[in-house]
Amino acid sequence: MIPCTVADLEAADLDLLVIGGGIVGAGVALDAVTRGLRVGLVEADDWGGGRSGHTGTLVHGGLVDLPRIGVGAVAALRRERDLLLDRTAPHLVRRVPMLLPFHRGLPERLAVGAGLSVYDAAAFSFRQPGVLPGHRQLTRRAVRRLAPSLAMTDITGAAQFYEGQVDDARLTITVVRTAASYGTLALARTAVRRLLTVDGRVVGAELTDAAGASATVGARAVVLATGTELSRLLPGAQLGPDAPAGPDAPAGPGAPAEPGAESASGAGPTPDGRLAAPIAETVHLVLPRGRLRSSTGLVLRSDGRGEARALYVVPWGRHWIVGSTAAWVDPEQLLAELSRHLERPIGSESVESAYASPAPMGPDMGRAPSIHQPMPGLVLVRGSSLAGYRADAERAVDAAVLQLGGLHPRSVTHRVPLLGADGFNARWNQRHLLARQAGIPVLRMEHLLQRYGTETAVLVAAIEERPELREPLSGAEDYLVAEVWYAVAYEDATRLSDLLARRTRITRETWDGGVKAAPEVARLMAAELGWDPARRTAEIDGFVERAIAGRWQP
Ligand SMILES: Cc1cc2nc3c(=O)[nH]c(=O)nc-3n(C[C@H](O)[C@H](O)[C@H](O)COP(=O)(O)OP(=O)(O)OC[C@H]3O[C@@H](n4cnc5c(N)ncnc54)[C@H](O)[C@@H]3O)c2cc1C
């Protein structure tokens, strides 16, 4: 990624300043820059450090939300999901089979079948065949064969359907990098303190970078894509007790992150074997794949607290991710709820890690995105889902373009492949050959292609030049040393936590939360970034301290 500083942003003559480097802000930057606007993008933490790096990883077409959001919204979401799978991010988004068991015999089978048929039909409403196969109904026997761990007591059959799945933080950094490749000035670890206004119009923002340097950045329009922090930056917003309110008062989520600081709380097994409760509201669990026997993901209905909810169990490499459509505060409760559906309950000792989103799921989950223009020069956008980010961004930029006089072209992002997507299918077909040429096992090549797409060529070229990069990473052998090098050189990883938690997902995929891998990764990062011994020690100590406290967020 082209390095950018606050001074670059200050000197730039920006059409649009985008605040918030989650999936929506990244999408807005990409949409705007590919329409010909001069764009700046700032993020207070790391790219994807907010909700976008802590999702359940499903790129869903809105099935669970069908009754709430209606067929039209579901059709639009499915179209976006299929675009990602087929055209813009086939290297990152892959299909995942999901199984929805029936418990009440024929009436339920008919009702759910009808809902799923509507869901399938929604894919065809745009006169294009669906990218994923339609649903099919399964007998009780087939359910037992596909998911032997399920308690079969009252299961009468199931529906099988397909969704997309993605490494959410990787999708976010890839959208940011794609936007940067078209000229967006993108700067992480830089918090916007307040919006600047002249005669009631927003004309830019005041921001502070990781080193504490402040700058005033002018822009003809500003898009706020700060997720749950949306309203806090509005002039006149009610601030926290220690911050003075008023139009000119500094606002925002606080100081930019310290090196290695985390934006989210987490949860993990404590020394007594119980799972520590997260501070934030919605938790996901990570289990070893072997602990739950199933060759498909699961959607399990769970009624309680007066609301219908669904648990989802999604395959994630050699692991499962367990989440819910409703907020679960307590990981133990989530585990107990999952166990209710299984032949053998799963104890907390089987949980590899748990992660919590820094913000609750919120009532907007799965709903249409909200776009507001509270004052001239300002657009607020709140996204709906991973699948919907591109369309949400398009609508936000449409609104911003109107504020700029309406002369810019329409969105083209439905035809802009993300970095690594162009030519991916051919490279995937050549993976055996590529693996032989690179001198690595085919499984490794598949791992690289599904994370970097055609950018894998950059890693392979580096491996050829520096054979030590071919080695598995000590403490997290699923990854290669080359991936640490690449994350630092190309993906704006500047802190140990950026690398262990988001460029890789080592924190959630290892029993120790990345503690074992931390010293080696820090050594490699120090060599690339020129850290002195004190900085290296501080990075490791800070990371390990949080991991051991059980408050680590993967
Ligand atoms: C528990 C949970 C599970 C979910 N699971 C799924 C799922 O499986 N599939 C799905 O499609 N969706 C899921 N979602 C929804 C999804 O996470 C959101 O729709 C999406 O991430 C929203 O992206 P965003 O960019 O709007 O917000 P965020 O990712 O939160 O980004 C906002 C960014 O703004 C930054 N920011 C805030 N203030 C400032 C400031 N002053 N200056 C600079 N930057 C600032 C923050 O640091 C943050 O990175 C889930 C949500 C939750 C909470």
Automatic annotation (TrEMBL):
- Ranges for domain FAD dependent oxidoreductase: 15-388
Alphabetical keyword list:
FAD, Flavoprotein, Oxidoreductase
Keyword Lipid biosynthesis in annotation: no
Entry EC number(s): 1.1.5.3
MF (Gene Ontology): glycerol-3-phosphate dehydrogenase (quinone) activity
**Ranges where the record places region Disordered:** 235-275
- Superkingdom, according to UniProt? Bacteria
> Does this UniProt record's set of keywords contain Aminoacyl-tRNA synthetase?
no
**Gene Ontology CC terms, in alphabetical order:** glycerol-3-phosphate dehydrogenase (FAD) complex
Q: Where is the composition biased (Low complexity)?
A: 235-269
Cofactor dependency: FAD
* Catalytic activity from the UniProt record: a quinone + sn-glycerol 3-phosphate = dihydroxyacetone phosphate + a quinol
| SUPFAM superfamilies noted in UniProt | FAD/NAD(P)-binding domain
- Check the record and name the Pfam families matching this protein: DAO, DAO_C
Give any single GO term for biological process.
glycerol-3-phosphate catabolic process
* Limits of the Alpha-glycerophosphate oxidase C-terminal domain: 411-536
Q: Which protein family is named in the record? A: Belongs to the FAD-dependent glycerol-3-phosphate dehydrogenase family.
- The name on file for this protein is Glycerol-3-phosphate dehydrogenase
Q: Organism source for this protein?
A: Microlunatus phosphovorus (strain ATCC 700054 / DSM 10555 / JCM 9379 / NBRC 101784 / NCIMB 13414 / VKM Ac-1990 / NM-1)
Taxonomy-wise, where does this protein's organism fall, top ranks first? Answer: Bacteria, Bacillati, Actinomycetota, Actinomycetes, Propionibacteriales
